[in-house]
Design brief:
There is one protein chain. By secondary structure, this protein is α/β, with parallel strands linked by helices. The protein is built from 29 helices and 24 strands. The strands form five sheets. A six-stranded parallel beta sheet has the order 2-1-3-4-5-11, with helices on both faces. Strand 18 (about 600-605) and strand 19 form a beta hairpin. Helix 11 runs antiparallel to helix 13. It starts with a helix and ends with a helix. Bound molecules: beta-D-fructofuranose (FRU). Beta-D-fructofuranose (FRU) binds near residues 43, 118, 159, 163 and 165. The site of beta-D-fructofuranose has 13 residues, from helix 2 and strand 9. Its EC number is 2.7.13.3. GO terms for molecular function: ATP binding; DNA-binding transcription factor activity; phosphorelay sensor kinase activity; sequence-specific DNA binding.
């Protein structure tokens, strides 16, 4: 592109120079004319003649310099011509002597000089052109002699001294006059070629000696002035006047002759046109004479008219020529402007053509480049698609791997739960308590705990990566909280003689923290501190309130510390300090930082002597979203975690309540982990009748047994726990059974999914047996409360009531059927079960589960409620009511009525 522009520019410059080249004049013959002055008509005519001649020759470039009768200026003008290197110089010198040197200089410089009219001294010029002024003087004298009739007294008026015509005219005149004794130049007036120079001296002469026959002036201007002076003295008629020049102009010699002012004038031709012709000859190096003499003639009253006519004709012709010249000039101008226009158009045409060619070229090259780019683009798109596909494959494989490891981690939790539950039982076992075995059991417990923590860290890492953590912060007394966590490490501190301190000035200081997450942060920082602090070392936690509404919690140890250049990396996942040769997963500190960031806090590490981790948290809760906060109570119940459970919670594990089999509630455990099933069976059989299913026949078994409560795992072979729960909760026969989901999946989505499928409780592994037991009895108690409500509100259970669930609609439907058939003595439990679409046994169990009595008793109750209603209406007697409601005898009816309401039907009726 840049190159193309360069070419266009070059083209443009070329076109421009083409135009300007054509405009440039060809080499011309430069002629410089140094004119003495231009004040009189003779000089004007001379200039005009030379100009006309030059204008007829286009090859000539004429430059006229007017010296204004100033000799210095004339010398300068000529020198300028020499510097400008004109081809020929024409000079009409003001005076002879002063101009001689500069003419010689020009000759020396190789520029030829043509001298006109007046001469210079010596012969050092190229040529001379002019009339013979000696001869003019002679002609004037001869004319006087031939025409004189009087005294023969003459006054001569000369031109300026120093100019050759004045000298030569006098010379010629006096030669002839002095030949004849009768004539005498009585007086000479020294003029300067102009009229004014004559008046005063002539007047003085004439006043002294008026007897003058002729006055010969060296030019017509001075002759006229002499005539005017004579006239002032009344002598103009007496004296005859002769002049020189013979111009055919106003007040020129010819007119003065015709007007009889002058007796005669000697023609002195300007030689303007001849001068230019001669100059060109000199330029062309043609052979010419050194002295070129112009013809002259006497003009008097005899030929003035004729000569005037001839001159007029010449003038007319000159005027024609001049006007033609003018017309030619106009045409030349037009031609020049048209020529310029044509050149300009040609120039633009060239530009347009160039641009057109360029644009065609550009279009082609752009389309080529476009195609090329399209090809590249397509390749990029293809590559991009490929990369995306590969990325997707990689992501899928990565997700699959991560899911596998996450699943595996979840799977680890169940056996650990079992191990820890058994170990906890062992710790509490009286037979072991006093023995040396207890230490080993505690060691197993401690390591299981550690393993569990590692698995939890792995799961947390995945959760943080997926940004699935939501803060559940509550107002917490940080001193108490810190102390509680420290309890877990006090044993080790004592054993290794580590000075383990907490400093905090304000023990009531409260902070909004997620206790579950902050517990993990504390645990991690303290585990590290204990790991790297040698025996007899020191670990200090200090809580300091700052002015800026923040609290700093620092964990300082006297361990090996971390090399300075690695400080910035400690919170990166999988980081392991170069001086750390202990086992470390490298995710603990990373998780700690992420958990602190969730609190809008910061965590930093200072390591000079030992390590110091400083957590900075904001006071108050304005930095937290409402969704990130929970109330205190919720938080306390939040961590039903085996790790944090103290062993004394488990004491009820060993409680052996002796309950008879028939009183026991039925429990169905849906779980495919045989160990866990065995464990649960062992731990729960004392209080419950435990049925089990590995998940393959879960729904069928639940329908068959209709247990009082179900404990169900999530990850099962056929259907997962959610599906099983959903099916059971949908089915009328099992919808009333409380379900506890027991799973290793502790994330929010799983919990939500569980709750959506209708489960009543959600416990995550590892679970605390005590909490499981508590949950079972809690749910059964709630069921009991509900049952009490149903029993006591059996007829008030309406579709829109707060129990708007499956059970409520079941009861409503069942009550409707019983009420409709209450007066049919043949209506049986089987008929009711049929109408409700359940088996007799299922009906029996469901009703028993919901309202706590058997179905026949419930039907009887409905009948008795109806009986009470009929008694109120007073339309039927007691026997009629008993039979209408299907009671076998009025007596049986009375007994049943009294059992239910405490009074006999008779008493009831009379009480109304
Ligand atoms: C013009 C003029 C003429 C005269 C000539 C002599 O300037 O004065 O009248 O003939 O010069 O050089």
């Amino acid at each position: 592109m840049y190159n193309s522009l360069k070419y266009i520019l070059l083209l443009f410059l070329a076109s421009l120079s083409f135009v300007s080249c054509n405009q440039k004049q060809g080499d011309k013959i430069k002629v410089g004319f140094s004119q003495a002055m231009t004040t009189d008509d003779w000089r004007k005519q001379m200039n005009s003649a030379i100009k006309i001649e030059a204008s007829l020759r286009p090859e000539v470039e004429l430059k006229i310099s007017d010296a204004n009768n100033n000799i210095t200026k004339q010398i300068e003008d000529i020198e300028k011509f020499i510097t400008d290197k004109v081809d020929v110089i024409i000079v009409s010198p003001i005076q002879s002597k002063p101009l001689t040197a500069v003419v010689e200089k020009s000759i020396k410089a190789g520029i030829p000089v043509l001298v006109v009219d007046r001469k210079i001294e010596g012969e050092n010029y190229t040529a001379y052109l002019g009339a013979d002024n000696i001869e003019i003087g002679r002609i004037a004298a001869r004319y006087i002699i031939s025409h004189s009739k009087g005294s023969g007294k003459i006054i001569e008026i000369t031109g300026a001294s120093g100019s050759s015509p004045a000298y030569e005219r006098s010379l010629g005149f006096e030669q002839i006059i002095n030949e004849n004794k009768r004539y005498k130049v009585e007086n000479t007036v020294h003029g300067d070629w102009e009229g004014e120079s004559v008046k005063a001296p002539l007047k003085a002469i004439l006043l002294q000696n008026p007897d003058v026959e002729y006055i010969f002036a060296h030019n017509d201007r001075m002759a006229l002035s002499a005539w005017e002076t004579a006239r002032t003295l009344g002598l103009e008629k007496k004296i005859k006047f002769i002049g020189v020049d013979g111009l055919n102009t106003l007040n020129g010699g010819i007119e003065l002759v015709k007007a009889e002012v002058l007796d005669g004038t000697i023609l002195y031709p300007t030689g303007g046109n001849e001068a230019l012709k001669l100059a060109l000859k000199i330029y062309n190096k043609e052979a010419i004479a050194k002295n070129n003499i112009l013809n002259t003639i006497v003009i008097d009253k005899n030929n003035a008219e004729i000569i005037e006519n001839q001159m007029d004709k010449v003038d007319q012709q000159q005027a024609v020529i001049e006007s033609q010249q003018g017309a030619i000039k106009v045409q030349e101008k037009e031609y020049a402007s048209q020529n310029n226009l044509v050149r300009l158009l040609s120039f633009f045409l060239v530009i347009i053509l160039s641009l057109t060619i360029y644009s065609i070229y550009s279009t082609i090259s752009i389309s080529r480049k476009k195609k090329q780019l399209e090809r590249i683009n397509q390749t990029v798109i293809d590559q991009n698609n490929e990369i995306q596909e590969m990325a997707q494959i990689a992501e899928r494989s990565n997700t699959a791997k991560l899911n596998f490891f996450t699943g595996l981690s979840h799977e680890f939790k169940t056996p650990i739960t079992l191990i820890m539950s058994y170990v906890e039982s062992l710790i509490e076992n009286e037979k072991i308590k006093g023995t040396t075995l207890i230490d080993e059991v505690k060691l197993i417990h401690k390591n299981s705990n550690r393993l569990l923590r590692l698995i939890n860290q792995l799961l947390d890492f995945r959760k943080i990566e997926e940004q699935k953590f939501t803060l559940r912060a509550s107002n917490t007394k940080i001193y108490d909280f810190t102390n509680e966590v420290m309890t877990n490490f006090k044993g080790e501190a004592a054993r290794r003689n580590i000075d383990f301190q907490l400093t905090c000035k304000n023990k009531n200081l409260e902070l909004f923290i997620d206790r579950g997450l902050m517990d993990k942060v504390y645990f991690n920082l303290l585990s590290n501190a204990f790991k790297f602090t040698p025996d007899n070392g020191k670990i200090t936690i200090s809580i300091v309130e700052n002015q800026d509404n923040t609290v700093k919690i620092s964990f300082k140890d006297s361990g090996i510390g971390i090399p300075e250049n690695e400080l910035a990396n400690v919170f990166n996942p999988f980081f392991r300090a170069s001086n750390n040769n202990k086992n470390s997963s490298g995710i603990g500190l990373h998780l700690s930082k992420e958990f602190v960031l969730l609190h809008q806090g910061t965590i930093e590490l200072k390591s000079k002597q030992g390590s110091e981790f400083v957590i900075t948290l904001l006071k108050g809760n304005s930095h937290l979203q409402p969704s990130e906060m929970i109330n205190k109570a919720e938080n306390i119940n939040k961590t039903p975690n085996l790790i944090s459970d103290t062993l004394d919670i488990e004491t009820d594990l060993n409680e052996t309540n002796v309950i008879s089999e028939s009183e026991k509630h039925t429990l169905l455990v849906i779980e495919d982990n045989i160990d866990l099933v065995t464990f649960l069976k062992a731990k729960l059989s004392g209080e419950y009748v435990v049925h089990t299913s590995d998940g393959s026949d879960a729904v069928e078994k639940a329908m068959e047994i209709v247990p009082d409560i179900i404990i169900c795992d999530i990850n099962l072979v056929d259907k997962d726990g959610y599906e099983i729960s959903k099916e059971l909760k949908k089915d009328l026969r099992s919808s009333h059974i409380p379900i506890i989901i027991l799973t290793a999946q502790s994330d929010k989505e799983s919990t939500l999914k569980g709750l959506q499928s209708g489960v009543d409780q959600y416990l995550t592994k590892p679970f605390s047996l005590s909490i499981l037991k508590q949950s079972i009895s809690g749910l059964l108690f709630n069921r009991e409360k509900l049952r009490y409500y149903y029993t006591n509100n059996i007829y008030r259970v309406e579709p829109e009531s707060k129990f708007g669930n499956q059970e409520q609609s079941f009861i409503t439907k069942m009550n409707d059927i019983i009420t409709t058939n209450v007066e049919d003595p043949k209506f049986s439990v089987e008929d009711l079960a049929d109408k409700l679409g359940v088996s007799r046994v299922q009906l029996y169990r469901k009703v028993k589960a919901i309202i706590g009595i058997n179905i026949s008793d419930h039907i009887n109750n409905v009948k008795l409620e109806k009986a009470a209603e009929l008694l109120k209406s007073n339309n039927m007697n007691i026997s009629e009511i008993a039979y209408s409601l299907g009671f076998s005898s009025p007596n049986y009816f009375s007994t049943a009525f009294k059992n239910k309401f405490g009074i006999s039907p008779k008493e009831y009726k009379s009480s109304l």
